[in-house]
Amino acid sequence: MTSNRREGLDGQTLPTWEGEGSSRVPSPVYTDEGIYQRELERIFYGPHWSYVGLEIEVPEAGSFKRTSVGERSIIMIRNRKGEINVLENRCAHRAMRFCQERTGKVKTLVCPYHQWNYNYDGRLLGVPFRNGVKGNGGMPEDFSLDDHGLNRLKVAVRNGVVFACFDHDVEPLEEYLGEDILSCFDRTFNGRKLTLLGYNRQRIPGNWKLMMENIKDPYHPGLLHTWFVTFGLWRADNESRLKMDKHHRHAAMISRRSDAVTKNIEEGVTSFRQNMQLNEPLLLDIVHEPWWGNDTVCMTTVFPNVIFQQQVNSLSTRQIIPAGPDKFDFVWTHFGFEDDDEEMVERRLRQANLFGPAGFVSADDGEVIEFSQEGFEQDQAFSTICELDGRGVGQSDHMVTETLIRGMYRYWREVMEL
Amino acid sequence: MTSNRREGLDGQTLPTWEGEGSSRVPSPVYTDEGIYQRELERIFYGPHWSYVGLEIEVPEAGSFKRTSVGERSIIMIRNRKGEINVLENRCAHRAMRFCQERTGKVKTLVCPYHQWNYNYDGRLLGVPFRNGVKGNGGMPEDFSLDDHGLNRLKVAVRNGVVFACFDHDVEPLEEYLGEDILSCFDRTFNGRKLTLLGYNRQRIPGNWKLMMENIKDPYHPGLLHTWFVTFGLWRADNESRLKMDKHHRHAAMISRRSDAVTKNIEEGVTSFRQNMQLNEPLLLDIVHEPWWGNDTVCMTTVFPNVIFQQQVNSLSTRQIIPAGPDKFDFVWTHFGFEDDDEEMVERRLRQANLFGPAGFVSADDGEVIEFSQEGFEQDQAFSTICELDGRGVGQSDHMVTETLIRGMYRYWREVMEL
Amino acid sequence: MTSNRREGLDGQTLPTWEGEGSSRVPSPVYTDEGIYQRELERIFYGPHWSYVGLEIEVPEAGSFKRTSVGERSIIMIRNRKGEINVLENRCAHRAMRFCQERTGKVKTLVCPYHQWNYNYDGRLLGVPFRNGVKGNGGMPEDFSLDDHGLNRLKVAVRNGVVFACFDHDVEPLEEYLGEDILSCFDRTFNGRKLTLLGYNRQRIPGNWKLMMENIKDPYHPGLLHTWFVTFGLWRADNESRLKMDKHHRHAAMISRRSDAVTKNIEEGVTSFRQNMQLNEPLLLDIVHEPWWGNDTVCMTTVFPNVIFQQQVNSLSTRQIIPAGPDKFDFVWTHFGFEDDDEEMVERRLRQANLFGPAGFVSADDGEVIEFSQEGFEQDQAFSTICELDGRGVGQSDHMVTETLIRGMYRYWREVMEL
Amino acid sequence: MSVDIQLRHAVADLYADYGACIDGAKYDEWPEFFTDTAWYRVVPRENFDRDLPLSTLSLKGKAMMKDRIYGVESTIFHAPYYQRHVIGLPSITVREDETIHVEANYAVFRTKRDFPAEIFSVGRYIDRVVFEGETLKFSQKFCVFDNDIIPNSLIYPI
Amino acid sequence: MSVDIQLRHAVADLYADYGACIDGAKYDEWPEFFTDTAWYRVVPRENFDRDLPLSTLSLKGKAMMKDRIYGVESTIFHAPYYQRHVIGLPSITVREDETIHVEANYAVFRTKRDFPAEIFSVGRYIDRVVFEGETLKFSQKFCVFDNDIIPNSLIYPI
Amino acid sequence: MSVDIQLRHAVADLYADYGACIDGAKYDEWPEFFTDTAWYRVVPRENFDRDLPLSTLSLKGKAMMKDRIYGVESTIFHAPYYQRHVIGLPSITVREDETIHVEANYAVFRTKRDFPAEIFSVGRYIDRVVFEGETLKFSQKFCVFDNDIIPNSLIYPI
Ligand code: FES
Ligand code: FES
Ligand code: FES
Ligand SMILES: [Fe+3]
Ligand SMILES: [Fe+3]
Ligand SMILES: [Fe+3]
């Protein structure tokens, strides 16, 4: 895969949609470099909130975590007031991405090239030799420290989760999420103190939206993920609800595990293994937690860059960091709660075997995304067909639908004007 | 070498040919991304037959082989009637390049993402939950399985060799090859059962046409390939004939080994080694096969993607799979005939040491192609000079000519309108 | 980092400068592929002298060294008259970059593909089968050897240093350098015989101009390079002079080591290590050489591709070979003088530990260039601020200034018309 | 305590055989390199160095390892690939309590169809071994990998 | 049969010397690592696993190996490059019939002028060795490589 | 002279420990692998083969090595990275004069934050070792690297 730009002599390939709808997504939406650049501008750097981390990752004043919003490197850092700032990791002097460690604690933010020095709020504190040396040189009269701080993003913190946005005119986080999605968010993040279990990082060679599709697609788990099917963790016939915000950019898939697991030949699901048995039942040692209510699974996709996972006892945030139209980094942050006992911690860690780059029910998601990308690359004239349960967009109380995907692309077309 | 696109601020570099002829090929023909995209559209996906394999590679119903035409992944598969189909390896649902193994045998073609299920003819047999689950969801009324099969290529099979084309309006294979080339083809492939000896795969960092040029260039073997020269396998003074189809896109170089090998200082061939002797004469243990007639070598280039090799007792097909303007994969399939005795099999395998990525007379072809590409990359204003034996195009009864190369580019200019 | 081309649907991003000046350099100047292509055309292949090597690297007739000017491979070779030629490494026949070894000695320059044969002046001496074989083929009547030699660059040799230029209308080297820079050049290269100590090669993932900036930036050494500061090799308060040619494209930073090394908190230089002591004082065993005069350091940047280093007893040329807007190869050639005694050779070799890819005061230059490039990549709308000592351009007798950088970009804007 | 020659050779053979087993795709034999209660763990160096307990894969006991192999071979869809282990010289230390600690650097190369070989995982084995009768087995095998990102997915054991 | 220490060390030295010989570009010495009738083969894992007899290179007998070296050094034009072998721990098995079978994983890195090192070939040596007097020699050396494509050409022995 | 088993094992341990020390970022312990007057050198194969005396790094004596470590840890600004050494089987030769010469091929992989592992340096150790009492130390260690360009900078010891 050399370049994704399919620009021929005959000019740029623009995506041509069949009709007004969003049920048939053309290949260039996934492969075109120009479209991707507009996505960065309008989506990742536009009025959309991006997940950047958890408060517990920066416990004290000066504690920082380096990550990215879109392709731009940023620093999440706690100031002396205990507030969390998100600053662009780029020195105002000569563009240095000066922060290279992933996490740590600093007194001030110093760019080593010429030791320009910023505080936790990104304010430029000083410039060496600003007034010259022995009367020579130095910065001009009209140079003002205030004009050359670090680029500061708008920040929203809710119940320990940190979001940021380059566009300061973005609506408040709560409005951005909308009532339904907010309630799913608050179900997991209700203010309890979180505990950090660790990270998994993978690079997936596919367009970033394919991951969003994957988690907005309740159709595939019961088919692709044999493990799910066989142990009833996810089945097309499980009780479930699908929710979206009013713009249809975010979604939540909520489901409950069925107690009786039966063969369902009638729907021709070949991935069900009747005779499959675990040698180690502990792998699926699920213990109900009060805050779940009846639901055993809640997967929330917050556009554009994060998925909040509750799969029985396994909890994680999954962050998307795009790196061109044809790949993205996918960062898993697993967590628990302060009041988890040892068994529960162990249980969350054990169930983590189902997820992440090696997970029984996640490793193949990365693979199918890669193969879909290959399919788009090989034919720019192709369009997908996402018409399960029709061509419209709306809430749903079952999982035999691609409505969430159509919803995301309806919003995408508005924003991208494509 | 980052990108091959030489598009400057001052707009796209188009190839500028000197005059009407095709004897001076400008650099962008080998390096420009836009030109390459048009080649894919008009040549590889247009009305030209591409080699995809040998019938013996898919012996039974359900046996398949995955390969590519241009950059598009395809599946060659035998159906229950014994016919060979060539299907694009891309699920109609969400573009999955679902077939990942190179070869095997399957009951049906199933895309694992949502288990859409296709038969050997590419027909969509079924879609899980098509009619919904418990009355919920499912595909729309107007959804028809017939509209969503795998993309099916036109197929031509001749004497055990399989060709395919995305454009169903392509002329019949026999017309496409033309009488002269067809006779060369039939000389080797006369209906005898073939036996598969194995594969060699190399990635050559050069434009795909440079490989075609190399095998249309009877000028170089007597100079570059010391091995050839010294043992008289290929010499400028050997008897030979050069043929083309009427469009000059295909060619055949036919030659016979000279019995007496003499120094030929007079032509200043410095690659001749007078005192060179084999420690192991078996390396050149050549045994004449009746079907050869008088000719010991027949190299046939079938535009755009295959070379059929008969070099004394060594037989192979060499498939070109382009991967950008600056590289291609080159796949060697060595074969023999069912009635070969053990010695002959052993002989073909031994002579295979002369060919392939490590071959005494082929390894350096890959190298010179790489270095030519480097030369084109470094100067977009350069043009080659292919004027040995003039500037015209025509058959020839000697090897001191570049007419076959001029022929290919004359055709290329017509098709590409450049 | 896939592609540096930031071309969105909304067309090409052109650099927008704040005002007429050159003190605020916009990101695309460092990242845009189209701008880079124009740089190759107008700067590297235009009327500018590029360093290609030292005379001692090609001691005898037929001795050659392969290197590059811009992205074009060239051969520096000595002919029988003892003159040095610089020839483009590209066969006139079919573009072969035929010279692959880095250095060596040859009788003639032969392209192995078809054995076209060139002499040390690049003249085509012969073409195999030019007159055909047995009356067949051969080159056309009007084929003239003189029309198909190797592309020959204009060459200038001064006191053992070799420069070349693709544009034969370039002004003489001495005028090109101008009086001030020439005197710095002649200070080191005064005609003494040089001795070759060896090479270091590194690939730096940043725009090539960032290296020029780095050596035109007397502001950073006293801050970034703790080693310098602490041992007084380079301090903002050292006596120094900054010179430029009249176009401000070249520069020289001349400085003398201060004897007394004192803490300089007043300027808030945190990189000074009071308690730092060498376990092995030999690392800084500096011995004054008569030709220095009072100056201990002279760093000369000759636009566009070379830096001449004299840092106390360590001497090197540093060649820039660009490879796209986002990276370049940096080749260090360390040398001494024929009359160096053993101790001095050993000393030069020992002090080489300070420089090169692992050097105490150079390794971090490569790093900061990489991080600056990352900063430019992440925001095309960013501009640097190079306003230390004002916004103008001029000579200086102190180091608290970025005037040399502003000078280079003033010239760059003229040449590039951007 | 000093390391006797028998042990050195037994360890060398164990690691050679272990790599050969996986690279040869004999996955069913893989759990047999472990004791019944062994802990097999694939963990990013980041988590390991920061004492974060999360693993990329954490299998406690041979039973769980068998489930993993079943999962890999029968339930996880993935592109086929070859693995190739190159394992460095192991360092062996026998503790007071007679437990045998072995560490070794490794590089695993992955080859997917139609592609060159690529670096898949590089890191360090931090293991414990015990003799079960004549044969040496892993009672602990931690694969602590340096590579900061996993190239899409990790299917087979490392 | 058990593997005695002398043999272990002789094998270790053989592989270390073999790699050093090639990486040091002492190609003329290379055939001397083999018996007169040895079979040296470089073969894609694809062919090997599918029992397809084609090799990328198949040299039977020291004479043919010498011809290869002559061909490489005097007849094949190619870009100069360095090779670097990193060979893993060998596994040795002595069969009933006293033949000594040795297998080892290898990674070979190639460096071309002006470029970083790259993975050139990774795979497994599947060899047989015999003592000729004091010195151990290869009577069979199969280099079964994983990498699904060869980066342009393969010139020197692996 | 023949190489006795003790020496073989001491050498194997030395190289395993050396790699572990660097990869484990225990840089302060690194100089302790050398004698007081040892010569540590990182040199491009190009210079080495052409007898050009320049090194990328040339540290004569343990004192200079300590200065290097101080410089690396306290004065050179650079991106953080992991190193991982995979070292091949060493060849040991004891000369007439009883000096012990050891050579071994190595591959060092570098991992920067947010990136996959990459080939950082491949080459050959050309070393001399001596016993200081019980412990084996390097009196010379030349790291002759093949890779024709260094990926930006080389900070830590190889
Ligand atoms: S680039 Fe940050 S201080 Fe100069
Ligand atoms: S992508 Fe093939 S079935 Fe959905
Ligand atoms: S390409 Fe140089 S001689 Fe033909
Ligand atoms: Fe899934
Ligand atoms: Fe050829
Ligand atoms: Fe510097």
Write the layout of secondary structure elements.
The complex is a heterohexamer, with three copies of chain A (418 residues) and three copies of chain D (158 residues).
Chain A: H1 28-31, H2 33-44, E1 50-54, E2 63-69, E3 72-78, E4 84-88, E5 103-105, E6 109-111, E7 116-118, E8 124-126, E9 154-158, E10 161-165, H3 173-188, E11 194-204, H4 208-215, H5 221-224, H6 226-230, E12 240-244, E13 251-255, E14 297-302, E15 306-311, E16 314-322, E17 328-337, H7 342-351, H8 363-377, H9 403-416
Antiparallel strand pairs in A: 1-10, 2-3, 2-5, 3-4, 6-7, 7-8, 9-10, 11-17, 12-13, 13-14, 14-15, 15-16, 16-17
Chain D: H1 5-23, E1 34-44, H2 45-49, E2 57-60, H3 62-75, E3 81-87, E4 91-94, E5 100-112, E6 117-132, E7 135-145, E8 150-151
Parallel strand pairs in D: 1-7
Antiparallel strand pairs in D: 1-2, 3-5, 4-5, 5-6, 6-7
The complex binds FE2/S2 (inorganic) cluster (3 copies) and fe (iii) ion (3 copies).
Residues 214, 220-221, 225, 365 of chain C line the site of one fe (iii) ion.
Describe, in plain words, how this protein is organized in 3D.
The complex is a heterohexamer, with 3 copies of chain A (418 residues) and 3 copies of chain D (158 residues). By secondary structure, chain A is an alpha+beta fold. Chain A has 9 helices and 17 strands. In chain A, the strands form 4 sheets. Chain A has a 7-stranded antiparallel β-sheet with strand order 11-17-16-15-14-13-12, sandwiched between helices. Chain A has a 4-stranded antiparallel β-sheet with strand order 4-3-2-5, with no helix packed on it. A 3-stranded antiparallel β-sheet of chain A has the order 1-10-9, with no helix packed on it. The radius of gyration of chain A is 23 Å and the shape is globular. In chain D, strands 1, 2, 3, 4, 5, 6 and 7 form a 7-stranded mixed β-sheet that branches. Chain D has 158 residues and is α+β, with helices and mostly antiparallel strands. Chain D has 3 helices and 8 strands. In chain D, strand 4 and strand 5 form a beta hairpin. The mean pLDDT of chain D is 96. At the B-C interface, helix 8 of B face helix 2 of C.
